[in-house]
Amino acid sequence: MFPFCVDCSFEEMPTNNFVESRYWFPISVSTCSFWNFDALFQPQQHPARDSHDTFFLEVPSTTRELPEDYVKLVKRVHESGGYGSRGYMYDWKREEANKNLLRTHTTAVSTRMLYALAKQPFTPKRYFSIDRVFRNESVDRTHLAEFHQIEGLVCDKGLTLGDLIGVLNDFFSRLGMSKLRFKPAYNPYTEPSMEIFSYHEGLKKWVEIGNSGMFRPEMLLPMGFPEDVRVIAWGLSLERPTMILYGVDNIRDLFGHKVDLSLMKRNPICRLGID
Q1: pTM (2 decimals)?
Q2: pLDDT band of 52, cuts 50, 70, 90
Q3: CA distances to 23, 37, 135, 223, 232 from 54, in Å
Q4: Which end of the chain is less congested by CB atoms within 10 angstroms, N or C?
Q5: Which distant-in-sequence residues (6+ apart) come within 8 Å of 177 by Cβ?
C-alpha cells in the first residue's frame, strides 16, 4: 500500500509563461536545453535533441544564465559519471546546453522544481502540472506537434516502483480506465522505467498513454538531495486518455486547427468537484 493518496497535498508547478530563458522562476514553455535535457541526464547525442524532434528558437537562440556550480556537476556526471555511474564518456558541450527551445515535456519544469527543493532542508513534496508541450512530429490520428501533458511526481524517502504502480492504477481508475498495462522501457533519466498503455475500445488496440519511472541518482544527487531520497514520476498526454474515455478515434477532433467548433455546442460542460 503506497503511503499517500493521489488527491492530497499535491502542489501545482508554474508552467504558464511562454517565453523565458532565465534559469530561475517564472518557469516557461520556452526553456533551454540544459533544463529540458542535460539536467535530466539525457546525453547530447540523443536523437530527441535533433531538430527533427525539437523546435529550437531563433531569437533568443541561447540562454545567458545558468547555476554555474550545478552546471559543473552535470557536466562531470555526463562525461565521467559518479554516484556509482560511469557516465556517457563524451565531451559535454556548454553551447549545446545553452540552446533555447520549446519544451518537449513538462519534465523540464519538474527538473527546476526539484533543483530548488534540493537547496532547502529536505521536505517530502508532491507536484503536478497540466500544460502544453511541443514536438516536431508528423501529425496523424494519434499524434500532434502541440499537445497537453499531465505531469506528476512524488519526492520522498523509501519510495518504490510499487508506489508508482499504485498511484497510476488509482489515477486512471478514477478516469474510468481500469484496463492498464505497464511495459518496461528506457528513459535516460529514470530507472526503472515503464510505458503505460490503456485499451481503446474504438481503435480495438492498446494505446500508449504515458511514461513513468523513478528518477536516476545521476539526476538527483548532483542537485544535492540525500542519497536515500527517491522520486517517482509520470507524464501522460491529456488528449489520449480523453480519446479512450470518450471513444474518439482521431486526436485532431479534440485539439488543433481541424476541431469542429460545433462539438462544444453538442456536449455538456464538464464540471469537476461541483455537486
Answers
A1: 0.81
A2: low
A3: 20, 11, 5, 25, 25
A4: C
A5: 198, 241, 244, 245
